[in-house]
């Protein structure tokens, strides 16, 4: 019982920080302005971890590896804790367990990225109907634009309604099935 409670708390903490770090990574990768409520929150929440890493880990091709690496490492820590609690550490040899843990952390980080995209798409769709001039509308639109633009080129609007967020969500869910 205590192990499950500890695992739940570890999952909640690592999941929240992973989402914040990935949001920071994608906001920087897609050139989303940090001069808004979401950007300020993400920077303030993750600066303690990202700033020291930036000194040792430079960016690569304009990508902020100092935000991506801790997100991956958090998922690796959670995966190792889960394997330890399930008793997988004793069953597998270290030579086979380490690559499995590393690969599972990559998949978990990719899943979190897709969950983040789905959340941004849903938020953008809701904001476009409820409050299109909200301060959150611009950064969310900048974050989702690279995913929606190719779909919008292929699928025309139907009755002045843009179906591209729905199609992007379906495609993201399909991708989640394979991960």
Describe the fold and architecture:
With 179 residues, the chain is mostly helical. The chain has one domain (2-178). Helix content is 80%, strand content 0%. It contains seven helices and no strands. The chain has helices at residues 2-29, 37-56, 65-86, 88-91, 94-130, 137-154, 164-178. Helix 3 crosses helix 5 (94-130), helix 5 runs antiparallel to helix 7 and helix 6 packs across helix 7. It is globular and about 60 Å long. The mean pLDDT is 90.
Secondary structure elements and pairings:
Elements: H1 2-29, H2 37-56, H3 65-86, H4 88-91, H5 94-130, H6 137-154, H7 164-178
Could you write a compact summary of the structure shown?
With 179 residues, the protein is mainly α. It contains seven helices and no strands.
**Low-confidence segments:** none
| Overall tally of structural domains | 1
Total number of helices: 7
Shape: globular
Quick tags:
single chain; 179 residues; mainly alpha; 0% strand; globular
